[in-house]
Design a protein that fits this description.
Two copies of one chain form a homodimer. Chain A is of the alpha+beta class. In chain A, 22% of the residues lie in helices and 28% in strands. The first copy, chain A, has five helices and nine strands; from the N terminus they run αααααβββββββββ. Chains A and B meet through α4 and α5 of A and α4 and α5 of B. Chain A binds a DNA duplex through α3.
Chain lengths: 191, 191
DNA sequence: TCCGAATGTTTAGAATTATCAACAGATTTA
DNA sequence: TAAATCTGTTGATAATTCTAAACATTCGGA
C-alpha cells in the first residue's frame, strides 16, 4: 500500500453521512424525522463534533434507508458524478460507421454501462455474432435497427426495444437509409 | 424477503464482536490493551448493555485488526466451524478409483475448497482434460501422481506439489502400483 | 487444598453523546 | 419589503457511554 493513497473523500463518518443524505435529497430535519432522532444530532455528527453510537447511526441510516454494512462498504465517491453532459461521454471505437458513446469515463467498479449508439446506413457488427457475459437492453430512438438474437431476427422501429442474455449470439445492423440512434445498457460492462 | 429469515447469529453488535474476538483468540483484556480502551467497555458492549460509539468501535476493531466495513460485512457465521474431524468431510464422487473428500459440507459463499484425495493405482481423470475457472494447488502425501498441465507432464513424489491456473487443461493419474494420497485446494470452489 | 493468575462482570464517577429549544442565514411568498 | 418558511448551527440539560477499580469465577500448579 502506498502511504499517500488516493484519499477517499468520506473517510470520516460525518462527511460520509452528509454525502449519503444529500445524494438521497434529504434535509437534516427530514432525515431526523424519519429516523426518530433530532436534527441537532445529525448536524453534530456531520460536523464530526461527536462520534455517534452504533444505535444512533443505525437509526439514522434506517431513515434513508441504508444498512450499516452498506454505509461502510459503498463507495459513494464513485457515485459523485450523477449527471453527465455531452462532454462527459467516452467514445468507444467500433468501426467507422458505428459510434458508441459511453456515459462516464471508466467503468471500473461499476455494475452498469450505458451507451448512446449511432449506426450509419449499412453499419453491421458482423456475421460472426457477438457473445459475452451479462445481459443487455436497448431502445431505438430514431431510424431502424435490425437485431439478430440467436435464431430470431427483427427490425426495430423507434420506441421499440430489445432485452437478452448477452451469451446468446447477437448482431446489430442498420439496413435502412437513414442513421439509427439508440440507447443501450450492459450489465456488467462488456468493455 | 421472507419475514422469518434464517437468523444470522450475530445481528447484534455485541455478539458479533464477541465472535470476532474469540475467532482471533483474544481475551477482552488483551484486545482492550491493543485497542487502547478498557476491558470493561468491551464487556459491556459484548453484552449489548451499551451501544458503542463509532470511535470506540473503530478503536477496538483496530486492535484485531479489522475495518468497520469488514466488521459489518463479513459473514462470521460462515466461519463458525474452524476445525473438522474425519466425519466432517464430504465425499465427492469421481469414479470408482478416485476418492475426493472435501473439508466441510457446502462451499456456498466460500472462497476456497480443500480436498483430501486418494487415487487408486491406475486411476485417471481422463484424456479429455479438466478445465474450469480459478486456481488450484496440491501436495503429494504418499504414492506417486502423474500430473499433466497443458503441454507439461511430471510424476510427483511425496512432498512435491503443483500449482496452476485451472483454465489450463489438466489431468491427474496414478501410474504407480500403490494408492496415491494428496491434499489439494481450489479457489474458487469448482464444484 | 490452597494460592496465584487469568478471565469476564459489575459499580460509581468522568467523559461523551443526544435532546430540546433557540438562533442566524437563505429562500420563498404575499 | 416584510413575513413566513426552510435550512443548518449552537447552548444547556438529560441520557448514555467509557474509565478505573473492585468483584466473582474458573483453571492450574505447588
Amino acid at each position: 500500500m502506498s502511504a499517500a493513497e488516493h484519499t477517499p473523500p468520506a473517510d470520516d463518518i460525518g462527511t460520509r453521512l452528509r454525502m449519503v443524505r444529500q445524494i438521497y435529497g434529504l434535509t437534516q430535519r427530514e432525515l431526523a424525522r424519519r429516523a426518530g432522532v433530532t436534527n441537532g444530532a445529525i448536524s453534530l455528527i456531520e460536523q464530526n463534533r461527536v462520534s455517534p453510537s452504533i444505535s444512533s447511526l443505525k437509526k439514522i441510516l434506517h431513515g434513508i434507508p441504508l444498512s450499516l454494512a452498506e454505509f461502510f462498504t459503498t463507495n459513494f465517491a464513485a457515485a459523485d458524478q450523477l449527471f453527465f453532459g455531452v462532454g462527459d461521454f467516452t467514445e468507444i471505437a467500433f468501426g467507422a460507421d458505428i459510434s458508441m458513446r459511453m456515459v462516464g469515463q471508466s467503468m471500473k467498479n461499476r455494475a452498469l454501462q450505458m451507451l448512446h449508439e449511432t449506426y450509419q446506413p449499412g453499419a453491421d457488427t458482423g456475421l460472426d455474432m457477438l457473445r459475452h457475459t451479462g445481459e443487455e437492453a436497448g431502445i431505438i430512438i430514431s431510424g431502424c435497427l435490425t437485431v439478430t438474437i440467436g435464431a430470431q431476427e427483427r427490425t426495430l422501429q423507434p420506441g421499440q426495444a430489445y432485452y437478452f442474455r448477452s451469451d446468446i449470439p447477437h448482431r446489430f445492423r442498420n439496413q435502412g437509409d437513414e442513421p439509427c440512434v439508440l440507447i443501450s445498457a450492459n450489465s456488467p460492462p462488456s468493455f
